[in-house]
Design a protein that fits this description.
Blueprint: E1 4-5, E2 14-18, E3 42-43, E4 46-47, E5 52-53, E6 64-81, E7 92-98, E8 114-121, E9 127-131, E10 138-145, E11 150-151, E12 153-160, E13 172-173, E14 182-186, E15 210-211, E16 224-242, E17 253-259, E18 276-283, E19 289-307, E20 311-312, E21 314-321, H1 323-335
Antiparallel strand pairs: 1-12, 2-6, 3-4, 5-11, 6-9, 6-10, 6-12, 7-8, 7-10, 13-21, 14-16, 15-20, 16-19, 16-21, 17-18, 17-19
Pfam families: Allantoicase
Catalytic activity: allantoate + H2O = (S)-ureidoglycolate + urea
Organism: Mycolicibacterium brisbanense
Length: about 325
């Protein structure tokens, strides 16, 4: 599975300022939906675009936009997506980052911005994937265009680095995207991505859940499965399996296994053993949230098995970090400073 888009509105990302947005609103940069374009559609601003587009003739300084990451963390790749912008895409772009308190004004002249992507020529109507080698934790990004022009989306892929102070002494949704949970693997994603299982919001329709193709090899143990890892090991207290909006095609049953191990550079998730019983095979109700109290210590990841196929909207695992887990989180926080 891919890294988390830390800038997405799904996790609370927002575009807080821009030099100009004459043709396309800045907020579209972090829209989780894929960009779309209908040629020949006009409004009072001109041709309607699905992205951020500035007026012509920005001057020697170019245009810029500032994005507050919804989930602060380490970045690996920034995608400056110029799809559907061909004759009006920016010539080049650079990316800066900073770490601020949430109430600090990121446009203030005193803010210390750090370049994390040097000025790079952009391709028109394309994903422009820009690598980031700086391993610090960031809260804000600044996209600097060398010129004027249009950008459809800004994706900031990386890993969430939770604040250990927010995990101390409280129960946390350790599987959640905002807390560093990750969908590492799934058996099938024919209709929709398994990544939606750990989204922080409630599903609004069936398309916002995980739905597999219809299996024809049905037997007593036939199932689809998904692996969800946590930022650090946790003592689990509750598991929720949500089948909202899956009325006629929800999974019939589910079981959950845990692991006290993690994948490493030599062995992927396919080599990790899931041998800790978390939730026995249980019948599911369609179109409903189902909550199960549990007491399972020291779990690092879950394997959710859906029998025999079908759809699940969300999986939520709540717990408290283990003592070792909290120390891991504190070390990671310190390493990112």
């Amino acid at each position: 599975m891919t890294d988390t888009d830390l800038a997405s509105r799904t996790v609370g990302g927002a575009v807080v300022a821009a030099s100009d947005e004459s043709f396309g609103f800045k907020e579209r940069l972090v829209d989780p939906a894929e960009p779309a374009f209908v040629p020949g559609t006009y409004d009072l601003r001109g041709e309607v675009v699905d992205g951020w587009e500035t007026k012509r003739h920005a001057g020697p300084g170019g245009d810029w936009a500032i994005i507050r990451l919804g989930a602060p963390g380490r970045l690996h790749i920034v995608d400056v997506d110029t799809r559907f912008f061909s004759g009006n895409h920016p010539t080049a772009a650079a990316v800066d980052a900073c770490t601020l308190e949430r109430t600090t004004d990121p446009t203030a002249p005193t803010v210390a911005w750090t370049p994390i992507v040097e000025t790079t020529v952009l391709k028109a109507d394309s994903h422009n994937l820009l690598g980031v080698t700086d391993k610090r934790r960031w809260t804000h990004l600044r996209l600097r265009l060398q010129s004027d022009g249009g950008v459809a989306r800004l994706r900031a892929y990386g890993e969430v680095v939770p604040d250990p102070a927010l995990w101390t002494g409280v129960t946390v949704e350790v599987s959640g995207l905002e807390q560093g949970g990750r969908v590492e693997w799934c058996s099938d994603s024919f209709y929709s991505s398994a990544a939606s299982l750990i989204a922080p919001n409630r599903p609004r329709n069936m398309g916002e859940g995980w739905e597999t193709r219809r299996r024809r090899d049905i037997g007593p143990d036939t199932h689809d499965a998904v692996i969800i890892s946590f930022a650090v090991p946790a003592d689990l207290r509750q598991v929720e399996i949500d089948t909202s909006y899956f009325v006629f095609n929800a999974s019939l049953e589910v079981s959950v296994l845990g692991s006290r191990c993690r994948a490493d550079r030599e062995h992927g998730w396919g080599m990790v053993t899931f041998d800790v019983p978390v939730l026995a095979r249980t019948t599911l109700i369609p179109d409903a949230r189902q909550v199960f109290p549990i007491e399972v210590p020291g779990v690092s990841a879950l394997r959710v098995q859906a029998y025999p196929d079908g759809g699940i909207a969300r999986v939520r695992a709540l717990g408290v970090p283990t003592a070792d887990g909290l120390r891991m989180l504190q070390r990671r926080w310190k390493d990112c400073s």
